[in-house]
Amino acid sequence: MDEILTMAEIEGKFDSEWVLIENPSTGEALEVRGGTVRWHGKDRDEVYRRAVQLRPKRFAIVYTGTMPAETAIAL
Taking a C-beta distance cutoff of 8 angstroms, is the pair 58, 23 a contact? Predict the structure, then answer.
């Protein structure tokens, strides 16, 4: 996958999945606006393992679904 996608396209193609995005386009507050999808899947740990294997210089990992209410997010 070498196609650059917007976040709307990524969310549409990979609903409720973890997505590894290489060279993400970001806004002023560093929110991800799009980029090149390198890996995706339901298993977060597998996506993180792929990031370690692929070793992209600049990347983001996003979840395209709704986080459960009991989920804590650290920034």
Answer: yes
In a domain, 50, yes or no: yes
Using one digit for the tens of pLDDT, what is the confidence trace for 6-48?
A: 999 999 999 999 999 999 999 999 999 999 999 999 999 999 9
For residues 19 and 60, give the distance between their C-alpha atoms in angstroms, rounded to a whole number.
8
Query: In this structure, what token pair is assigned to residue 73?
Result: 């997010």
User: Cα–Cα distance between 9 and 33 in angstroms, integer?
Assistant: 10
Q: How far apart are CA 68 and CA 72, in angstroms?
A: 9
**Contact call for residues 66 and 31 (beta carbons, < 8 A):** no
User: Does residue 57 belong to any structural domain of this protein?
Assistant: yes
Residue recorded with tokens 């993400």? 24
Helix, strand or coil for residue 66? Answer: coil
